[in-house]
Amino acid sequence: MLRFFKQNRNKNIEHTQDAVKPSRDRWFGKILNVLQSSKLDNSVWEELEEILISSDVGVETSLRLIEELKNTVKEKGLETGEDVFASLKESLVAGMEPENAESVWMDETEVSGPYVILMVGVNGVGKTTSIAKLAHHFTQEGKKVILGAADTFRAAAAEQLEILGEQIGVD
Length: 171
Hints:
Elements: H1 9-37, H2 42-54, H3 59-76, H4 81-95, H5 127-140, H6 156-168
């Protein structure tokens, strides 16, 4: 359906991985430190939950991950922080598999007003271009599209979005 996202995929993946490496290393370092520093008791689970939530994993997702992790620890008899950490990483990766991801596409029977898609990501990974591609896709389906830029770092993003919008015929 949206094959156009596969263009430059490897370049974008590599750029994104390089950009997020320092944050990822800090984040996973905090988690591993908590799991290795003490016995797996309620305080460890609470601290792990706090790290996940404060890292914008989301409350619902964080709570689900913690529950899954507790169950895995119990079922598999995991005892070391490294084993629990590996299990958490497996759960995070599994949650990003396409069959486990929630669809971002609108179910038109459930939409009564504007449908908003917020694009967020690190600099230089193609967000603005992807927005234009999505806008084009939706206009081809006969939908009314309005683009809005909210980039606080790159002022030219609004201009770029305006130019791309004009090229594909959207506001």
